Amino acid sequence: MEQQRIIAHFDLDSFFVSVEILNNPSLKDKPVIVGGRERGVVAACSYAARKFGIHSGMPSKKAFQLCPQLIVANGSRGEYSKYSRWVTQIIAAKAPLFEKASVDEFYIDLTGMEKFFNPLQWTIDLRKQIINETQLPISFGLASNKMMAKMATNAAKPNGYLQIPFGKEKEFLAPMTVNKIPGVGDHTYESLKAMGIFTIKDISEKRIEELEERFGKWGIDLWNKSQGIHNGEVSQYHEAKSVSTENTFDENKTDTIFLMAELVRMVERIAYELRQDGKVAGCIAVKIRYPDFETNSRQTTVPYTCADDEIIPVAKELFHKLWKKGTPVRLMGVRLCELTNDAVQTNLFDDVERKTDLYKAIDNVKERFGKASVKRASSN
C-alpha cells in the first residue's frame, strides 16, 4: 500500500508589503503597493488595497485609478532578500525536506514523520516560530499533495492555517470556481464556462474523455486536479547551488584594465546562464590565485538579481578588496550562488521590468549570433 503523503505549504502574506510595514509601521492598515509608478506593475499589495480591487500584476496606472490615495512603498529589494533568507534558515533548521518555490513560498514534505510527531502541531509550531522571530505574517496549508496544500493556504489567508484531511479533497474543492485551480488562466476559464463548467465540482463530474477531446492532455490534468490528485514532488532545496566560471591565464597578469575586462566578461557569461535558467542569485563570490598558488576568495550577499549591471559593480568591488595591487594574477574566477527561481517576482519593479526587456533582447542576439556577439562598450 502506498504511503499517504503529508505536504505543508507556507506562504508569506503580501511579503513585499509586509516587509515595508515592518520598516515603516505607519503604513499598517493603509492601501499600499510595492512596484512601479506610472509604467510599472503591482508587485504586491496590502489587504487594504485589495478591497479596492487591486491585485498583483495589475498595471500601476489602473491601481491608482481604483484607489487615488494609494501609497507606493519604496521597494527595498535588499530587505526582501534579507527576510527571505531569514525565513529560509528557520525552515531549513527544522524541516526534514523542503523546497523553496520562490522568495516567499515554501513546500515541506512531512511524509512518514507522523511516526515521530503530530505533523499539524509541528507545522503550527514552525509558523509561530517564524512569526515570533521575523514579525512577518505567514499562512500555511497541510494536505495530501502540493496542489492541495497550496489551495489550503490560499483559503487560510490572511495569516492563518488550514488542514485538509485525507479523503476530503473533493469536498473541499467542489464549491470553488474553476479558476481557483492552479494553471487555469483567463482563456481556459472562459472556455470552461462556455461548456457550462463553473465550479470544480462541475469538472469532476465531466467525463475525462470529453475534457481530453476539448483540451488535450491538459484536459486529463484538469480532471485529475478536480479530484484532488496531484503528483508533484517536493524538490530538496540546496542553497549551495551555483554557477561559476574561472580562467587560468597563459601568463600572469598585472594589468588592471585587462583584469577588469576579464571580470566583466566572466560576469556576463554566468549572468546569461542564470537568465537562461530563469534564476536569480543572492550571493556573489570572486576568487584570485597568485603565481605561488596562494588562493583567496571573497563573497557578499546581494538583493536577488540576474542583471549584469547589478552584479558587475559588486564583483569589481570584491576584486579590489581581494587583490594585492600590483601582484601578478595567475587565475581569476566568479561564482553566483544562493540561486532560486524568483526571476518573475524580482522583475516586477518599474526599472527592473524595463531592464529585463533589455536583457531579453540582448540574450536573443547572443542566442542567434553567439555569446561574443554583444560586448560592453567599456569594462573599466
Key words describing this protein structure:
380 residues; alpha+beta; Alpha-Beta Plaits; DNA polymerase, domain 1; Dna Ligase, domain 1; 3 domains; five-stranded mixed beta sheet; four-stranded antiparallel beta sheet
Would you give an account of this structure?
- The chain is an alpha+beta fold and 380 residues long.
- The chain has three domains: 1-164, 2-Layer Sandwich (Alpha-Beta Plaits), CATH 3.30.70.270; 171-226, 5' to 3' exonuclease, C-terminal subdomain (DNA polymerase, domain 1, Orthogonal Bundle); 242-373, Dna Ligase, domain 1.
- It has 15 helices and twelve strands.
- It has helices at 15-23, 47-50, 60-66, 77-94, 119-134, 146-156, 169-173, 186-194, 200-204, 208-215, 217-226, 256-276, 308-322, 343-346, 350-369, and strands at residues 7-12, 32-35, 42-45, 71-73, 98-102, 105-109, 138-143, 161-163, 242-253, 281-289, 295-305, 329-337.
- The strands form three sheets. Strands 5-6-1-7-8 form a five-stranded mixed sheet. The protein has a four-stranded antiparallel sheet with strand order 9-12-10-11. A three-stranded mixed sheet has the order 3-2-4.
- α4 (77-94) runs antiparallel to α5, α10 crosses α11 and α12 (256-276) packs across α13.
- The model is unreliable at 343-348 (pLDDT under 50).
Give the SSE layout:
Layout (H helix, E strand, L loop, with lengths): L6 E6 L2 H9 L8 E4 L6 E4 L1 H4 L9 H7 L4 E3 L3 H18 L3 E5 L2 E5 L9 H16 L3 E6 L2 H11 L4 E3 L5 H5 L12 H9 L5 H5 L3 H8 L1 H10 L15 E12 L2 H21 L4 E9 L5 E11 L2 H15 L6 E9 L5 H4 L3 H20 L11
Parallel strand pairs: 2-4, 7-8
Antiparallel strand pairs: 1-6, 1-7, 2-3, 5-6, 9-12, 10-11, 10-12
